[in-house]
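Why should sequence recovery work at all? Because a backbone constrains its sequence more than one might expect. Tight turns favour small or flexible residues, buried strands favour hydrophobic ones, and helices have their own preferences. The token representation captures these environments compactly. In the example below, the structure is given first.
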């Protein structure tokens, strides 16, 4: 526990014990499977968390494997790097999507600022694509890659639901439920919240702690 308290980032967020930072706003979905992250790390011959030779804390915060053995993961890489002009601790941080299908590639997630973290809420192999859904400071994003590169990032809402290859999401105090096909993330005709409720597919309110 003492070693964890010293860390800069934990699970894609600034260590609240060390920095007293506020949490990201809640988004629907669940935290990623720890076993899947460990499997991906093992396939790459590493640990899901380690400190590299430059002193950066490297942590896999979401991962998936396709049937062909290709691996995809989201990794944070962070360390304290002195102080800024206001005498505040400067955090050197990047959060990237990685794809290794025999040709390793990576790219920064879509984010206002990685300093505020990344809360992975879904990471699955679906058809020919890896589908990632995560929350950053201001927005929830859906991301598609694996069958294309660079990844496609689409801003959705915190209230979302994946149902029968359709991603549904609804904005706060709105009656329109937007829809996109999965895995393509192609937008299709919206339905009303009442229609979605009648069909049992109204996106749920996100749980604050999940």
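From this structural description, the recovered sequence reads:
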């Amino acid at each position: 526990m003492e070693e964890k308290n010293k860390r800069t980032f934990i699970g894609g967020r600034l260590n609240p014990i060390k920095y007293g930072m506020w949490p990201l706003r809640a988004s629907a979905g669940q935290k990623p499977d720890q076993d899947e992250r460990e499997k991906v790390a093992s396939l790459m011959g590493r640990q899901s968390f380690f400190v590299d030779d430059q002193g950066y804390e490297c942590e896999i915060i979401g991962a998936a494997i396709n049937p062909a053995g290709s691996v995809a993961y989201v990794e944070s890489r962070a360390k304290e790097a002195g102080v800024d002009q206001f005498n505040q601790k400067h955090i050197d941080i990047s959060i990237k999507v990685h794809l290794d299908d025999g040709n390793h590639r990576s790219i920064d997630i879509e984010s206002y600022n990685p300093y505020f973290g990344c809360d992975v809420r879904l990471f699955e192999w679906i058809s020919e694509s890896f589908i990632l859904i995560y929350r950053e400071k201001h927005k929830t994003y859906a991301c598609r890659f694996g069958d294309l590169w660079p990844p496609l990032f689409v801003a959705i809402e915190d209230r979302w639901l994946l149902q029968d290859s359709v991603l549904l999401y609804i904005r706060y105090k709105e009656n329109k439920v937007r829809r996109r096909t999965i895995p393509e993330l192609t937008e299709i005709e919206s339905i009303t919240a009442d229609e979605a409720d009648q069909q049992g597919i109204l996106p749920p309110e996100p749980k604050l702690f999940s």
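A few observations help interpret the result. The mean pLDDT is 93.
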